[in-house]
Amino acid sequence: MKKTWSTVGLFLAVSLLVSCSALQSPEIVGERKAFSEDEVGNESVWKIEDQIYYVRVAATNRLVASIVEWDKDRQTHKLETEEIVLSRLGDDQFLNLKIEDLYHIHYLVPSDDGRVLLFYGINPDALNKHLGRGVVKTDARHDVYTLEGTKEEIDQFIRANIKSMYDPGEVTVAHLISGSL
Question: Which of 18, 92, 124, 140, CA to CA, is 20 to 30 A from 172?
Fold first, then answer.
């Protein structure tokens, strides 16, 4: 049986993925995940490598993830919180993290029990084949790919290329530590 939304099990941590390349878009990919009133307030704790992430459903349309880091200059802990958008395009699930004016798009696959999430890095070779044609652009660093076009064009491009544009060799694993999300 294919795992569907594991509620907050799909989340932010991906901004720190192992992959050196990034995929971004002015629009989220696919259809936004909405949360029920019963899910508001649900929390979970996740571990990716040596970092702990706290995730909370803040409202029916708002999901936030936070990390606590040590501020060497101030000699105190600081809390960093980001809003994330979970989405679905067909059977595929994505985490969209807004940074400035663009969403960083991460492909994710939850385990059947929702206790493990796999975040796939992008495959630059596959995206390079599309540069200059259609919706794929790159910046001067050549490691950040931007999808430009209408939401429909972006979704259509991802739907058509999902199997080649994400690299199964570049996977980051998130483990659920606690929570019922």
Answer: 140
Question: What is the maximal distance between C-alpha atoms in the chain?
Answer: 50
C-alpha count within 13 angstroms, C-beta hemisphere, residue 80: 11
Instruction: Kindly state the tokens that stand for 5.
Output: 């939304």
Q: Is the pLDDT of residue 109 over 70?
A: yes
- Going by pLDDT thresholds of 50, 70 and 90, the confidence category of residue 18 is very low
Of 120, 126, 124, 125, the C-alpha closest to 168 is 120
Judged on CB neighbours under 10 Å (0-12, 13-18, 19+), 44 is: buried
Alpha-carbon span 169 to 160, nearest angstrom: 20
Could you tell me the residue ranges of all domains in the chain?
7-34+85-179
Q: Name the helix (H) or strand (E) containing 48.
A: strand 43-48
Q: CB under 8 Å to 150, separation ≥6 — which residues?
A: none
Tokens at residue 112, please? 């059947």
Determine the Cα–Cα distance for residues 21 and 136; give it in Å rounded to an integer. 14
H helix and E strand count, the chain: 2, 12
